[in-house]
Design goal:
Radius of gyration: 68 Å
Helix content: over 70%
Strand content: under 5%
């Protein structure tokens, strides 16, 4: 048998002297110093415990706090982005509303200007028609007046001519009768 198999066979064999003898024999064969190994294990456990309590635990706590801050910062950034998006939508909506109001105001102004223009145009036409009507009435009145004056003058001339033709003076009653007859004749024409 080779050397490593020999040690395994002896370790697996029932111990004649007990477990302590087997451990002692294994430690002698492998060159282990049990008190030194125990001291190293105790030192390792103490250093690992101290590192855990004073280094790893605070570092892990700091990492955890930083992770929470990063998460809260990301959440805050997402909230702010959502608020910014909502604010941009609100601004766009207000801008569109203002645009619509502006267009409505322009349309109302154009409509009011058109109505005012049409109203002024109608008033001007009505005034012109009124002036034309008054002028026509004045012309008719002047025409009637002129015709009356012309009839009177013609009647006077007829009477005067008739007087000269007849060579006698007419009385007022005859003159009025001749005037009326002449006026009737003239109105027939």
């Amino acid at each position: 048998m080779s050397a490593p198999l020999f040690f395994l066979a002896e370790a697996a064999a029932p111990a004649s002297g007990g477990v302590a003898e087997t451990i002692t024999k294994i430690s002698r064969d492998f060159g282990l110093n049990v008190p030194s190994l125990t001291a190293q294990i105790v030192n390792f456990v103490l250093v690992a415990g101290l590192l855990w309590w004073f280094a790893f635990k605070p570092i892990l706590a700091t990492i955890g706090e930083r992770q929470k801050k990063i998460d809260s910062g990301l959440k805050y950034a997402e909230e702010m982005k959502a608020r910014l998006d909502a604010a941009q939508l609100a601004v766009e909506a207000q801008f569109k509303e203002a645009q619509l109001k502006g267009q409505q105001i322009v349309a109302d102004s154009q409509k009011a200007a058109k109505e005012l223009s049409e109203k002024q145009q109608r008033e001007a036409v009505e005034r012109a028609n009124g002036i034309i009507t008054k002028a026509q009435a004045a012309i008719e009145l002047e025409k009637t007046k002129m015709l009356a004056e012309a009839r009177t003058e013609v009647a006077r001339l007829v009477v005067e001519t008739t007087q000269r033709v007849l060579a006698k003076e007419l009385s007022e009653l005859e003159r009025a009768r001749f005037n009326e007859a002449a006026a009737r004749e003239l109105t027939k024409v």
